[in-house]
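Exercise 7.
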Amino acid sequence: MSEPVSRRDLILDKAAQLFASKGVSATTVREIADSVGLLSCSLYHHFESKDAIVDELLRSYLDDLRSRYKAVTAEDLDPRAKFDRLVHASLETVEAHPYATEIYQNDFKLLVEQPRFRYLQSSASETRRTWLDILNQGKDEGVFRSDIDPQVLYRIIRDVVWMSVRWYKRTASYGLRQLADDCTSILLDGVSIKHPAKRTARAKR
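Solution. The predicted structure, written as tokens, is:
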């Protein structure tokens, strides 16, 4: 038997859905209160402000991501294996926090300008460093390409992985592991089928 959802958790869930679909600035406290059957004034018994709700959603999301990334980087793995594990950890976090992921992607620039949310910048920098460390390690070891700036590679990887929140839905035939494998394969191996090099006309002669 599942445990009943607390009013606080219900507020967080409903607010997250509203923030993800409408944006933080366009969502009002009254809309959040209405979504859980409360008066606006009653909502303040649970949260001091709308920003406090956003803060809790994003901190939970980023704490989870940080924990998963630390677990990956602590493993003794080669760069390719770590790359795969980071992709999987990222997608697991997206699946666990779909609305918070959307809020982060959509409203980062708006929120980071506010003192309360300045930590978003340091969190983004920490995530970027984690990926760049592995990309640079792979480059130094001759595993990853050296002709593309790791900063550019990171931005491509970031968009492929995090934008999946806007379209991916787990199904019985296509689970998260398959998505992670496909992302890793495309990002590291591309989409071209590898054929043996054709002999040139001169070589044939």
